């Protein structure tokens, strides 16, 4: 049985937590003792006598305020598929948490309050979905019960969103009129909206085809640890341990070590303590080479006929995650998997306006949650692919030099 990883996103009070609670409740993925506890804690009860949002609002602060702060992960399954759901916060100041959840998802559900239509947070989350190259977009127009289940309102919001989607080049968009509180079009078709001829949301989630996000074309392996036991039994053993980031490696493959640019051959591959003939992403592996080469943590093994970029200057789109503004000339660490390098922001090329989607080139600083294109220079060459080609080796984070906090999520162009 395959697994679908998806994230719910939207503005505050759009009903994200309630939607997930409804999916869990109607798919009978809640234990009896959980239901009893929910009935006691519920303040905003629905017809079933419970507040479904409490199933995902796990933090005390979330329950007290009735909001989502952290990304909450929930798991459930049906006879057709297993699901991993990420419930993202709706408040603007927690957009950085949404980026974390979306980067690991195959599909995004963007909720829109039928009373409010497309708003700034809708645009912001859609921009992030576009930047992360999300393959499937589900637009769930919620609280249809509060607008009289109006087909006209549904069609107006659909039209407004499609205009945004066209500018962002979003593909595979599906629209659902729902009421998460009452369960309309979540698991069963709604008798309140006979004009809607599509499937309920869960049926779509069970059947949507999501190609595996693992890239098996571009072979990329990064050294996390050099194994040198230096025991009598393994005197000459020198293994390089790490995950297969993408692609496939076989014994006898000719590889190039980057950034040193030295070629050699794979002499042996081990995984799970056993020797194997090949490994593929995302397996962990230990790779041994025919030649003794000076190799350190963070170095890459790649196929000689499929090379990534090795540069110390490149362009990237950044979602800014810090309260302290980003300005040209600021210095940070940039983290590429297990490689940490000093970097400087050479130039801010433009800022993306989340309301008009225009590119503002007259930008001197960047504030929390803003999206910008920048030019970055690193102290030493970095091994990378364009995010669109291989998101595993085209993504990085910026880290503050003094606080060690993550301040930016980077997608390399």
Low-confidence stretches: 58-69
The average pLDDT value, as a whole number, equals: 85
Question: What is the total domain count?
Answer: 3
Sheet with the most strands: spatial strand order = 2-3-1-4-5-6
Gap between N and C termini: 35 Å
Order of secondary-structure elements: EHHHEEHEHEHEHEEEEEEEEEEEEEEEEE
Q: What is the CATH T-level topology of the largest domain?
A: Rossmann fold
Radius of gyration: 24 Å
Query: CATH class of the largest domain, anyone?
Result: Alpha Beta
**Strands, count:** 23
CATH architecture heading of the largest domain:
3-Layer(aba) Sandwich
Number of continuous helical runs:
7
Structural class: alpha+beta
Fraction of helical residues:
10-25%
Describe the structure.
The protein is about 15% helix and about 35% strand. It is of the alpha+beta class and about 425 residues long. The chain folds into three domains: about 5-205, Rossmann fold (3-Layer(aba) Sandwich); about 220-305, Translation factors (Elongation Factor Tu (Ef-tu), domain 3); about 310-410, Elongation Factor Tu (Ef-tu), domain 3, CATH 2.40.30. The strands form four sheets. Strands 2-3-1-4-5-6 form a six-stranded mixed β-sheet, sandwiched between helices. The chain has a six-stranded antiparallel beta barrel with strand order 7-9-15-12-11-16. Strands 17-21-19-18-22-23 form a six-stranded antiparallel barrel. The longest helix is centred in the middle third of the chain and has 18 residues, at about 150-170. About 40% of the residues are buried.
């Amino acid at each position: 049985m395959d697994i679908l990883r998806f994230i719910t996103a939207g503005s505050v009070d759009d009903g994200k937590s309630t939607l997930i609670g409804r999916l869990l409740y109607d798919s009978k993925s809640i234990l009896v003792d959980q239901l009893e506890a929910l009935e006691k804690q519920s303040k905003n009860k629905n017809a079933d006598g419970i507040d479904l949002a409490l199933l995902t609002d796990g933090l005390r602060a979330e329950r007290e305020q009735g909001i989502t702060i952290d990304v909450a992960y929930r798991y459930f399954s049906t006879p057709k598929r297993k699901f991993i759901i990420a419930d993202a916060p709706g408040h603007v100041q927690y957009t950085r948490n949404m980026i974390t959840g979306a980067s690991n998802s195959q599909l995004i559900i963007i909720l829109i309050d039928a009373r409010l239509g497309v708003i700034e947070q809708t645009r912001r989350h859609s921009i992030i979905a576009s930047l992360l190259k999300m393959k499937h977009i589900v637009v769930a127009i919620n609280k249809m019960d509060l607008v009289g289940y109006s087909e006209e309102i549904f069609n107006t919001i659909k039209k407004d969103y499609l205009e945004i989607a066209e500018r962002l080049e979003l593909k595979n968009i599906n629209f659902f009129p729902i009421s998460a509180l009452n369960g309309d079009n979540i698991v069963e078709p709604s008798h309140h909206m006979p004009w809607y001829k599509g499937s309920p949301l869960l049926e779509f989630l069970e059947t949507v085809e999501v190609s595996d996000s693992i890239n098996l074309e571009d072979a990329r392996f990064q050294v996390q640890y050099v194994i040198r036991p230096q025991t009598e039994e393994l005197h000459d053993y020198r293994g390089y341990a790490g995950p297969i980031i993408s692609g496939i490696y076989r014994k006898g493959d000719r590889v190039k070590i980057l950034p040193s640019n030295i070629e050699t051959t794979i002499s042996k591959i081990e995984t799970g303590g056993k020797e194997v003939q090949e490994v593929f992403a995302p397996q962990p592996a230990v790779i041994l080479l025919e030649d003794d080469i000076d190799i350190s943590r963070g170095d890459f093994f790649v196929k000689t006929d499929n090379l990534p970029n090795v540069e110390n200057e490149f362009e990237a789109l950044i979602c800014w995650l810090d309260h302290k503004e980003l300005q040209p000339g600021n210095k940070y660490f940039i983290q590429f998997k297990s490689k940490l390098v000093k970097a400087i922001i050479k130039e801010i090329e433009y800022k993306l306006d989340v309301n008009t989607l225009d590119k503002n080139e007259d930008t001197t600083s960047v504030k929390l949650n803003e999206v910008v294109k920048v030019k970055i220079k690193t102290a030493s060459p970095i091994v990378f692919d364009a995010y669109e080609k291989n998101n595993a080796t085209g993504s990085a984070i910026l880290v503050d030099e003094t606080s060690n906090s993550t301040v930016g999520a980077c997608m390399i162009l």
